[in-house]
Specification:
It is built from no helices and 4 strands. The protein has strands at 13-17, 22-25, 49-52, 57-61. It is globular and about 35 Å long.
Length: 80
């Protein structure tokens, strides 16, 4: 695997987050459980991004793996 993440999809993933719960966002793009990590990064230079939901809400997590606001979508997929 290279140091460039695999583009899982060129659109964000809409997910329901639960307040106080920790999540691990897939940074490599190889997870079969997108947008969350399933351990597919093992043996690569990638690591998941851990974050905690501060409130229960719908969020849009990056699917292209190029967001500067990871794990959240910043629209970077529009330029790919």
């Amino acid at each position: 695997m290279t140091d460039t993440p695999h583009i899982a999809q060129k659109a964000p993933f809409a997910v329901d987050l639960e307040a106080g719960k920790s999540y691990f966002w897939c940074a490599c793009g190889q997870s079969k459980n997108q947008p969350f990590c399933d351990g597919s990064h093992k043996g690569t230079g990638f690591a998941p991004t851990k974050f905690e939901a501060t409130e229960s809400k719908k969020a849009f997590l990056c699917g292209c793996k190029h967001s500067a606001s990871a794990p959240f979508c910043d629209g970077s997929h529009k330029a790919l």
